[in-house]
Amino acid sequence: MSVFSAGAKVIKPQGERPDDFEISISQALLELEMNSELKSQLRELYITGAKEVEVKGKKAIIIQVPVPRLKAFQRIQVRLVRELEKKFSGKHVVFIAQRRMLPKPTRKSHTKQKQKRPRSRTLTAVHDSILEDLVFPSEIVGKRVRVKLDGSRVIKVHLDKTQQNQVEHKTDTFAAVYKKLTGKDVNFEFPAWTL
Q1: CA–centroid distance for 88 within its chain
Q2: Within a 13 Å sphere around the CA of 108, how many CA atoms are in the beta-carbon half?
Q3: Where are the beta strands (DSSP E) in 107-161?
């Protein structure tokens, strides 16, 4: 198999070259496309990047996908993650959309902004979206920010109790990946809501 076809599933912005790890992920996606029932859904999809993160002595794989393709990935994400985790010998796999943050416009900023910065490009919005992508297929049902006496913040995220069996074993991975991407500490809980 040629290098082009191995890297066919990785499309980097501005013609950057995919690294070896991204090519190995691309290869795995191509193999899944060739011989699995996900063939028709995977044909249109590609990734923009991938990296490995250390989580309590184990490794986790973060796969970045373009925002317009995120919904299509999420339709098959549960099966895709299961297959990729088999291929990469039990490493946890998470999909995150490749989002762009724009700097806060200030009086001193030299580039004149023609348009107002969209809410979806703010730091807060991007970090919230990353969190939602991480915990998929579970849903975030509540959030608390706890500020400790030393000024450090911990975000307590309440996940949907119905999905507890599917995602509970991955909460450490989610927390480590979120910390790596945003620098924020996060705890995941499955509260039983009583009315």
Answers
A1: 17
A2: 0
A3: 140-147, 153-159
